[in-house]
Amino acid sequence: MDIQPALDILRQKIPFVPELAVVLGSGLGPLADCPEAGEGTLINFHDLPGFPDQSVLGHSGKMFFCEFENRKVVLQAGRFHYYEGHPMSLVTAPMRLYGRMGVKAVLLTNAAGALDPNIKVGSFMVIKDHINLQGTNPLIGPNVEPGQRFPDMSFLYDQRLRRQLLSIGGGHEGKLFEGVYVAVTGPSFETPAEIRAFHLLGGDAVGMSTAPEAITARHEGMLVAGISCICNMGAGIQAKVLTHQEVLDISKTIGKSFEQVIREFVRNLDL
């Protein structure tokens, strides 16, 4: 995907280079309804060449370039998913745009399912690593310069940013913990056997996004951090049917705590 036309539009309309991009996952987009976003510059995905409308409930498809907690940021409400049938070049296009704009760091957030019965719904997992089971890698194809052909992923989720996120936990009743995110394609929820297997592999939470963006952001030279909002227990852990609406409902109930975590992280961000 050629992102240059979209990049040209952003450079023309945005009067500053954001320090940080915050990607808001399923049901977490309401953070972008904050007053600061309303005073910034709104870019709808469909206003950018090659960017289609969003098709997933809970993903509005908007970018808000604004001053947030005295920082220049872009709040991205919604994302493109591989399960929608999009090519990886579109799934990761926002990361390419931010990298070319000169953004220093990205905070990726998502709604995820717990793989461990001891993890509580409504808690926040700081991603320390991921297991990519999406069956592909966003860097397949010609290398996008100036990124390296074989980039190292040993420290994909920046240790210093992880420490900053975990330091917030004291004020949120221990709701923040660190763990491994398992990325699958979806859109079906996982089977109980898959949930048990993912846990045996070392995973703590599972979702249908984030890994391609993290890999691409690192390839672009940005620092990467991630938070999974635990919105359901994995299949088989509880005797109940999983629904996307449940994910959205839980996202709504934890919205205030989520906003507090994001605000404190941005306020004390040390880049």
What is the tally of helical segments? Answer: 9
* Major β-sheet annotation: 5 strands, mixed, barrel
State Rg. 17 Å
Outline, from the CA principal axes? Answer: globular
Strand order of the largest sheet: 5-8-7-6-9
Helical amount? 25-40%
Termini gap: 30 Å
The H/E string reads HEHEEEHHEEHEHEHEHH
What is the β-strand count?
9
Mean pLDDT: 93
Low-pLDDT stretches are none
Offer a quick outline of the entry.
This protein has helices at residues 4-13, 35-38, 88-91, 93-101, 159-166, 192-200, 211-219, 244-253, 255-267; strands at residues 20-24, 41-44, 62-68, 71-77, 105-114, 124-132, 176-183, 205-207, 223-233.
Molecular structure report:
The protein is of the alpha/beta class and 271 residues long. It has nine helices and nine strands. The protein has one domain (4-267): Nucleoside phosphorylase domain (Rossmann fold, 3-Layer(aba) Sandwich). 28% of the residues lie in helices and 24% in strands. Strands 5-8-7-6-9 form a five-stranded mixed β-barrel, surrounded by four helices. Helix 6 links the parallel strand 7 and strand 8 (205-207).
